[in-house]
Specification:
- By secondary structure, the protein is mainly alpha-helical.
- The protein is 76% helix and 0% strand.
- It contains 4 helices and no strands.
- Helix 3 (74-105) runs antiparallel to helix 4.
- It is elongated and about 65 Å long.
């Protein structure tokens, strides 16, 4: 599931890149812009971030500050990481619940292109669900480490 969302996120970069390149080229060469370019680019970027979140976590590509954790013994370090994962999971569950409610109630559309906001609100739910599943996997792995397996 994480890879599927990551591939969807990855393929959003291609149209975003072409759209931005063409818009900038037209603006520089002919002083003409493509209407809605900023709007579309911001939506694609939001989807890219939300759908790529769990893959980034899976690959441990997030920024981490381990300055203090490096001084602790391995078991204490794993315990702290497990506690932080549980806190993250609680936060993600709240985001999923509230995001679901907001996505179902959403009826607005974008200003220029009149794109419905609902799918983008639902992307938050999908992205947080896959991220929460990755966190659950990490918690299970950390519990196995603490048990010495």
């Amino acid at each position: 599931m994480t890879r599927v969302t990551a591939f969807c996120a990855m393929f959003l970069l291609i149209p975003m890149m072409f759209l931005s390149t063409i818009d900038v080229s037209l603006r520089k060469a002919f002083s003409v812009t493509i209407p809605g370019t900023m709007e579309l680019s911001s939506y694609m970027l939001a989807l890219f971030i939300l759908l790529g979140l769990s893959y980034t976590h899976q690959r441990r590509a997030h920024v981490r500050v381990t300055l203090l954790l490096d001084f602790f013994p391995p078991k204490v370090k794993v315990s702290i990481e497990t506690f932080l994962h549980i806190l993250s999971l609680v936060m993600l569950v709240v985001l999923i619940k509230e995001g679901w409610i907001i996505a179902l109630e959403e009826t607005t559309v974008s200003d220029m292109l009149r794109i419905p906001q609902n799918p983008f609100r639902m992307a938050l739910v999908v992205g947080c669900c896959t991220f929460a599943l990755e966190i659950v996997v990490d918690i299970a792995e950390n519990l196995q480490k603490l048990r010495g397996k």
